[in-house]
Each structure stands twice: as structure tokens, then as C-alpha cells.
What does this fold into?
Amino acid sequence: LLRAAAIVIAAAPLLAQSQSTELHVRFNSGQAVVPIYEGWERVADGSFNMVFGYLNRNHVQELNLGVGGQNGFDPGPQDRGQPTYFYPRENHFLFKVNVPKDWDKKKELVWTVVANGKTEVARATLLDVWEIDRKVEVSNNGGVQISNDLIAKDIPPVVKIDPIVRPRAGTPVTIVASVTDDGIPPLNQKPRGPRQLEPSLRGAPPSPVNVPLPTRPRPVQGALSVLWQVWRGPGHVTFDPDGYVKVENGKVEVKATFTKPGTYTLRAFGHDTLLRAPADVTVNVEGGT
It folds into this structure.
């Protein structure tokens, strides 16, 4: 009896380790894209903005899901400005859907995304518990020590993209944009240090990793910066430099290489270290020569 008990006890750590590893399995591809309802915010005219993002459960696979049954809103119109190109992992506070001031608080606006044969939905309502403001977005982006007064005064940067002349697939094209800002917050502040690890996690062994975690783009500290992404389009676009690019003398410049011909909408997020705002440009990319 004692021998049998010893065998059970010895096996327990192996079972726990197996379950822990299983919980941390990460996937290159084949997983769902989960639409996320971030909450609603008030608009000065009395209407409301419902704010959305998404979680692409894949760590590598980027998906192109056109507006329609695979990527649409109900009640219609199906197209409410959502992305059709989905980057890996978490992408929060990406776009807003405006609904009228007489929208029933309990009425749902449902965003459905079908990816890799898996259906996921986000159900948005105007219930009080879902109300958010700028502070919520800033806090979720790491600005928890910023005062409410400063957030209220800030106006996000304005990005204006120069015309893009006849881009071709496979050939880098230079994209130039001008960026203006109201000077809030001051950009000469000392950058924040790295976030400290929670005391309960210090010294803990690393989680099992079978797929590297994609790097999350971070705005340039102490400066205006711009992040370029594909919002809609048939294929991947490589931006050089990648991630947020520092604005120099009111201008920002990247080289974009389109993998496929077709119509693309590129989105540039201008960031002043506190708030960000998007600007879009639609380009028709010709086939390579």
C-alpha cells in the first residue's frame, strides 16, 4: 500500500507539468480571430461611439477577411469601417462605430469574424457598465500615472499622408507624411523606466514557449511617432523601419513593400505618447515587372 502511494505521489508532478505545458501551447496558425468590444464613449452631439479591437490567436498567421459573412456587423450595414487585415495577437482600441443618441441601451451591435473555420463574435451595447473614456484607453496603454486634466486637454496628432505614386508589388516605395500636434503632453519629459515585475512573479520559472511572442509596437517615448499598418488589403506589407517611427521636423518617412498587387488601405496611427489618432490612404498596387 505504501509503495502504491509513493507511485501516485511521484506521478503527480509529471501530470501537473503536462497540464501546465498544454495550457501554454501557442500556435503559428489555424486559430480564431476574436473581435473585442472595448466599450462605448460619449460624443458631443449626443451620439455614441462603440470602440472595438481584436485578438488574433495566431502568433504568426496574418489573415485577410473581406467584409461580408466572414467579417461583418449585424444589424447592417455589414461594413462599419472594421479592418479586413488582421495582425497576430492583441490589437486594442482600433476603430469606432458611431450609433445615434436614440440607440436602445440594450440593443446589441454584433461583430462576427470567421477565421480558419472558427466563428467568434463581439456583442456591443450601451449598458452603463461598458462606458469608457480617454483615461481607460491611456491606462491600457501604460499611461496610468498621467493626470486626468492632461488627458482632457490633449488633442491627438494629425497625420496627413502625401500621395503615393504608382506602387508596384515587390518594389519598395517611399511614403511620406506630415504630422502636427498641439504640444500636449510636453515631449521633453524624461522617459519612463521599464515596468517592474510583480513581486509574486519574481524568480518564477519562465512559461513553456513553443512559438515566440510577437513584439508589440510601442510608441517612441518623448517624441511624436507614427505606426504604419495594413488596414485592408490582399497581402502583407513590409514597412522599413518597422513599428513606431519618430517624427523629425514635422515629417515621417517609411519604405513600404507590397507582397501582392491589388487595392490596399494603409492606416497611419499618429501618437503623442498619450493619445493616438488614425489617418488612412487607399492605394492601387500594380503587379511587379
Q: What stands out?
A: Residues 52 and 196 are 29 Å apart (CA to CA). The chain has a mean pLDDT of 87. The helical segments are 2-23, 134-140, 148-153.
